[in-house]
Amino acid sequence: MKSFFNVEDIGDLKKALAEAKQVKSTPFAWKNLGENKTIMLVFFNSSLRTRLSSQKAALNLGMNPIVLNIGQDSWKLETSMGVVMDGDKSEHIKEAIPVMTSYCDIIGIRAFAGLTDREYDYNETILRQFIEYGGKPVISLESATVHPCQAFADLITIDEYKKKDRPKVVMTWAPHPKALPQAVPNSFAQWMNAADVDFVITHPEGYELDPRFAGNARIEYDQMKALEGADFVYAKNWSCPGTTNPGDYGKILSKDMGWTVDERHMAVTDNAYFMHCLPVRRNMIVSDAVIDAPSSLVIPEAANRVVSAQVVMKRMLEDL
Ligand code: AN0
Ligand code: CP
């Protein structure tokens, strides 16, 4: 595997899930694979799970992880081309990327969407520069439009807990005080569309995901109707993707607390499990009662981030 952004990069999902099971049951079986290999994990934004689970996955494979927080541990990096660098950014990404990749065998990047320029974000401008100037395998650790390590961990979790061959999975928008990227819902939709599930997306009007991620998913604007009979409820906030109105890109169109997932919502499901990628704002996205209930999968879901990262790194190491 040369890069990991899209569901296609992992190939056959059944095979990937079987490999995930193997990795989960014998995490140290490949500890010689990463010998003398280095992965660099570059963070332009904060992280708890991605940072720690990626390091743990690398260590399980015998690989050395190096973590760099851009702008905190390093110089601030300029990412735009052709600019006069007379501001606070001391180094250009055009030099920084090949320097960083000269010190490693695989590189992972977290670089959130700026949410101001839709074209810049949806072209994955920063991630593309890592591919172009780096020349090493690249993993998206949540880039502008995708968070594939999260979506793969979500799929692993659904596969583990499902009680039906083809469960109903409902992704519901929920309110949040700050504008958030669409990377998590984009990837979740992309992976659920490729998986053997009955997938429904519900959100207020104006929050339509880009068609390249929403695909053929059913969209239901009535949240309660969407949740009826659900086996898994996947909550997430996202800001306006600008699909129908590009001028609204990155804006908060609704803070309707009626969408906060609570016991009233869970009551219409088929005893659904609750999922969220974390970090989550309690009593904004989900009520205390729902996230604290035994049917909440947020902790096992986060634990599976090690498994998804390890499968991806293992495949990259095998292809080096
Ligand atoms: C980020 C987001 O919504 O993209 C990261 C989630 C994994 N969340 C926040 O910034 C709160
Ligand atoms: N879910 C997730 O990616 O969490 P972090 O932002 O803490 O890495």
What does this structure look like?
With 320 residues, the chain is α/β, with parallel strands linked by helices. It has twelve helices and twelve strands. The protein has helices at 13-25, 49-60, 93-101, 118-122, 125-134, 148-161, 183-194, 211-214, 223-227, 263-266, 288-291, 298-318; strands at 3-4, 38-43, 64-69, 77-78, 91-92, 106-110, 138-140, 168-173, 198-202, 218-219, 232-236, 273-275. The strands form three sheets. Strands 1-7-6-2-3 form a five-stranded parallel beta sheet, with helices on both faces. A five-stranded parallel beta sheet has the order 10-9-8-11-12. The protein has a two-stranded parallel sheet with strand order 4-5. The mean pLDDT is 97. Bound molecules: N-acetyl-L-norvaline and phosphoric acid mono(formamide)ester. Phosphoric acid mono(formamide)ester (CP) binds at residues 47-50, 142, 150, 277-279. Residues 142, 180-181, 183-184, 277, 279 line the site of N-acetyl-L-norvaline.
Short structural summary:
The protein is of the alpha/beta class and 320 residues long. The chain has helices spanning 13-25, 49-60, 93-101, 118-122, 125-134, 148-161, 183-194, 211-214, 223-227, 263-266, 288-291, 298-318; strands at residues 3-4, 38-43, 64-69, 77-78, 91-92, 106-110, 138-140, 168-173, 198-202, 218-219, 232-236, 273-275.
Q: Provide the helix percentage.
A: 25-40%
Radius of gyration: 19 Å
Let me know the number of strands.
12
Q: How would you classify the helix and strand content by structural class?
A: alpha/beta
Quick check: average pLDDT?
97
Instruction: Note the beta-strand portion.
Output: 5-15%
Largest sheet: 5 strands, parallel
H-E order: EHEHEEEHEHHEHEHEHEHEHEHH
Main β-sheet, spatial strand arrangement:
1-7-6-2-3
Bound molecules: N-acetyl-L-norvaline, phosphoric acid mono(formamide)ester
Taking pLDDT < 50 over at least 5 consecutive residues as the criterion, the unreliable ranges are none
Euclidean distance between termini CA atoms: 8 Å
